[in-house]
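Memo to structure team: turn this sequence into structure tokens by end of day. - J.P.
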Amino acid sequence: MRIGKKDNKKIFKKITLLTILIFVILSQKIYSSKGNGMVVEYDGSAGFCPLGDNNFTLANADILYDIDTHDYPYTFDLEIYANYTVYNPDDAVNVTFAAPFPQYSSYYENISIIVGNHTIPYCIEDPEAYKDDNIDLYYLTWWDTSFLIFNISLPKNDSIEVKYELISINNPFHGNIQSITYGLFTAHFWNEILHERIEFHVNGTYPNKYKEQLYGYPEINCTIENHENTRSYIWEWYNNNLSPDVMDVFIFYEFYYIHPTYILMWIIGVSGALIFIYLIYYLLKPKKYKR
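Reply from structure team:
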């Protein structure tokens, strides 16, 4: 059975379309698998909280995020300095506290927990290890979360200051949205919160968006302070534990950056597809015979 020129053209068109379709599907899989699809990556921490039932008051929480984005859109540096004043109205007790942070943040280093003038030991654990300690894991599942765990002794009917420092250098920007957050979902674990202030101090490229207002709390808005070459995003409130539905405050960056590696991959892929199509066409092209 001989294949005519029209049949050759139909076969050629089908093979061409199939090749292009396969190439598009594979390139999308490669592209998305590298984290550069339409995804959101989180970086930051959440307010630390006591594990289990308690009667403690968070008298004051002062959190500073010092964010350097001069290397945008490649990397950013994040330094977290948090000061907490905890009041214990009962007898002296030894308490386990936890500070949640994203599990993937392998770039975190120089973590310090300071009570008084002393640095105390800590460990990093999965929240599943504490599922029986009255921890509502529902509010931690939106992150791949780990716990920074530490123990401190709270004096009887007195306050103690806890400092929490975390330095994260050369974090890569991921995906199309990079969110830097401070989680508020641990606020309802306290018996009472008297004052909380959170400041994101940005040095370098400023974010595209930020949390303008806390969900359900129209009186708690973000205040922006412009300094020389820097900008601060500040949220502050008094006498409010916040609803568990209030997840976080954040800033985030939207960008569409294609790494040179992906450009090279596209060029190689397109070239390979064109070569394949040409070879198929050459093999199916009717032969001309000399008479």
